[in-house]
Amino acid sequence: MWQQIIVGLIVAAALVHASTKYLPAGWRRRIVYGLARCGLNEDKLARFFKVQDSCGSGCGSCGSCGSGGSGGSKDAAAPPSPPVSRRVIKLHVQR
User: Fold this and answer.
1) Is the full-model pTM beyond 0.85?
2) Residue 58 and residue 65 in contact, taking contact as beta carbons nearer than 8 Å
3) Structural domain includes residue 77
């Protein structure tokens, strides 16, 4: 009896972990909105499922929200940011 309960808890925890990491973002947003309608805290759920907005939180990293963060104003004393390395996937279409 106890073994089945423990295995059920382990499977449930694995399902939650997989859903927070491997589900598409649209599905995770639907899960967050569905659970928020049931009365749970939407901000905490969004952080847990990693679907919170990348901007608008007032962090000041992008400077578009105008919250007075360090990202919006370029100071002379601020060190330059390192260049972003982007990988390009080349597609070869065969016809």
Assistant:
1) no
2) yes
3) no
